[in-house]
Structures are given as C-alpha cells and as structure tokens.
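Run log // design_07
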C-alpha cells in the first residue's frame, strides 16, 4: 500500500500518540479504502471494544457496592475470631502467617485499598485495562483469614517477621511422608542424596549408579544396592 503524507496523516500521527488506531479510524483521521473482509474485521473490532466498554461500565457501576459487601464479609470474619491471615505462595513454599492487622497485608484486608488501582481513571471513563478485563489486573487477593487453631492445623507455615504473630512455631515444616521410589527413577541430580532400603536399612549417600539392560545398581557410601527397574528404594529428605 503506498504511503501518502497528507495533512490529515500528519494530524493522525500526532493524534496516534494519544488515540488507538480504532479511535482514529472511527474519527475519520485514518481513511483507507477497506475491502469487504477488512471492513468486517474493523466492524468486529469496534463491536468487541464496545462490548468491553459496556462490561467495564457495568463492573465499575457495581464496584462500590461490591467493596462494601466485601468489607463487611472481612469484618464478620474478624469478629468471628479469624484474626490471622495466611498467604499461600504460588511456588508451594509454606504459607506466610500474619496478624490480620499487619501493615504488609493491609491492602488485602481493607478492600477499599485492595481496589485502589482498580478505579476509573477519571469519572465516567473506563480505565481501558481491558486486556485482562476489569478487576483482574490490580485487585489485591482475598485475605485468607483464619483462627489460630486453623493456622496451627496448616502442615507448614512461616511467621511474618514484621508483625511476628503468636503462632506456636516461627517456621513449621511439613513432615513429609516418605514414599519409596523406583530404581528406574534415579537421575543424576540424586547423587549426593541419602538412601535407605524399604526395610529401613541405611545405604548412605548415593555416589554413582550403573544402569544395565535390566539391573540397576546404586553405589552408596555404606553398600551397593542392586535391583530391577521396579525395585523400590527410599530417598531420605534433605
Ligand atoms: Zn505480618
């Protein structure tokens, strides 16, 4: 397509810094002849954008009521004695436990603050964060409030160092149930780990292993252990 530099185009280049391409086309600042398919795609995009705007409108209209209801729910939980907050981590690390009053979780407990980045940028104007949908991008996660008893029932947790909650332990580690693994699952990163037999005989640190057609031999510090691929052996926790 040939590039032509009309005054209109100059104007549109300036405006493009502020407006999306769809806005520019809608305002006639970009006018190119469209094929039927392009026209269809453009109409679809405009309709899609309008649907998103309407959804945002609906979301922001109900947001104050939602926040008020959420704050009431939090208050009810606190009044029911759930004065601790356990934040689970996506990497499976032990949850961090706080007093619900901890400064570092205030943005979760106070739902007004939780939604502080979720406001309209100016009255009547949706914030345009429609990639993820309204309310998805910036809302602090729901406070997982618990009683102290419920906290102590967690298999693992770590007490926040800032608010120092009065949990029994500073760091509770999960007592992992040791499950035997098959000899065929041994990989090089297991070297240096300790093993025992399923009957509880200590084999010591794995120094190397040999795999042949159907026999696998673990060369451990105490003694060698040999078996077929499905033979079981117990990897001791680090
Ligand atoms: Zn804390």
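design_07 sequence
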């Amino acid at each position: 397509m040939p590039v032509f530099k009309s005054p209109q185009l100059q104007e549109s280049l300036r405006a493009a810094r502020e407006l999306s391409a769809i806005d520019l086309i809608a305002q006639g600042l970009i006018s190119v002849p469209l094929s039927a398919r392009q026209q269809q795609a453009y109409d679809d995009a405009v309709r899609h954008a309008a649907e998103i705007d309407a959804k945002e409108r609906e979301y922001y209209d109900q947001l104050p009521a939602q926040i008020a209801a959420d704050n009431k729910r939090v208050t009810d939980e606190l009044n029911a004695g759930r004065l601790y907050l356990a934040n689970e981590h996506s990497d499976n690390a032990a949850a961090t436990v706080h007093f619900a009053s901890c400064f570092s979780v205030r943005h979760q407990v106070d739902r007004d603050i939780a939604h502080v980045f979720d406001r309209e940028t100016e009255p009547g104007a949706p914030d345009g964060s429609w990639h993820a949908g309204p309310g998805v991008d910036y809302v602090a996660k729901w406070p997982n409030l618990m009683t102290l008893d419920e906290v102590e029932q967690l298999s693992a947790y770590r007490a926040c160092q800032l608010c120092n909650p009065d949990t029994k332990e500073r760091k509770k580690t999960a007592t992992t149930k040791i499950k035997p693994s098959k000899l065929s699952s041994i990989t090089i990163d297991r070297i240096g780990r300790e093993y025992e037999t399923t009957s509880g005989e200590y084999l010591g640190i794995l120094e190397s292993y040999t795999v042949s057609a159907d026999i696998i031999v673990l060369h451990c510090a105490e003694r060698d252990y040999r078996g077929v691929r499905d033979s079981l052996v117990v990897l001791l926790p680090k």
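The chain has three domains: 7-51, 59-172, 181-235.
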